[in-house]
Amino acid sequence: MTQQAHDILNAYIDGELGPDEAAELEARMAEDPDTLRAFETLVRQKTQVREALDALATGPANLKTERLKRRLASKLAGRASPARRLGVGWLRPGAQIAAACALFAFGWWGHATVTTPPAGIPDYVSEAIGAHQVFADDPVYPVEFAGAAVDGVADWFAGKIGVPVAAPDLAEYGVTLVGARLLGTKEGPLAQYIYEDGRGARYSLTLAQHPEKEPIGPVTVVDYPNRSVGYWRTPKVDFAFVGEGGAGDVQRIAMDLSSKI
To answer: Confidence band (pLDDT; 50, 70, 90) for 170?
Structure first.
C-alpha cells in the first residue's frame, strides 16, 4: 500500500474525508480485500495504543487520578456522538462499527487532545510513551522503514513534520538503530526512531515540531513502570527518549543527545 493510500485510510477513520471521498473509499473496501485488510490493521493498531495508554494508569500517581479518567471518558463520548461530524454517517453499518472502534482506540490522539498534561508533562511525551509500548516491542513489525530506507525517508519525514529530523547514531552507548516510522496524531505527525541494545532491550526517540509560543526546556526524566522517558524542548524540535533500562541510562543518553542535536 502506498503512503498516500495509508493517509487516506487514516483521514477516513478521523472523519476528515468529504462525503464523495468517503463513499469512494467504502466502495473500494467492498471490492478490494487488501484495502479492507489495511483498514482493519489500522483499527487494531489504534486499539493497541489505547491499551498501552490504559496500562500507564499504574504509573506515577499524578497520571491515574479518577478526575482525569472521568474527563477523558466524558469528552471522548462527547466527541463520538455527532456521527456525521466524525464521518460515521457516511459509512455502511459494518464500517460504522469499525470506524467508531477506531476513533475510541486512537490512544495517543485522545490522550493528547482531551486531557491536560499531568504535572506539566507535554502531550507529545504521552504520545511517545504510548507509541513506544505499542511498536518498540513488536517482534513482527516494529518499524515502517529499516536499514538504508531510514536515510532515504529523512526528507519525507522532514516535509511531514515541518522541521529537519534524523536518526542519531547511538553506537557509543551499545545501542543500534532498528528503524523508523511516522506517527500520525491530532497535534501533527511525529517521527519515531527505534533502537535496540545487546540484550534486546528497546529504546525509542520521538521528535515533534515545537509549537509556537510554547516554552522550551532542559532534559527532564520521568519514571514509568518498566521504562523511563527523558524529554526536552528546543526552539524547533521537541524530543522524547524512552528506554526500558534504568532511569540513569535514559538520563545519560538523553543528556548527551540534548547537547548534540
So the answer is: very high
Cβ atoms 88, 96 nearer than 8 A: yes
Q: What is the DSSP letter of 133?
A: I
Q: What are the tens digits of pLDDT across the range 74-100?
A: 444 443 333 333 333 334 444 443 443
How many helices and strands (H and E) does the chain possess? 10, 6
Domains, the chain, ordered by start: 3-114 (no CATH), 122-260 (3.30.200.100)
**C-beta separation of 80 from 123 below 8 A:** no
Q: Name the nearest CA neighbour of 108 among 58, 47, 38.
A: 47
Q: What is the CA radius of gyration of the chain?
A: 19
* Helix, strand, coil in percent for the chain, rounding step 5: 55, 20, 25
Q: Distance from CA of residue 19 to its chain's centroid? A: 27
Its pTM surpasses 0.90? no
- Give SS3 for 87: coil
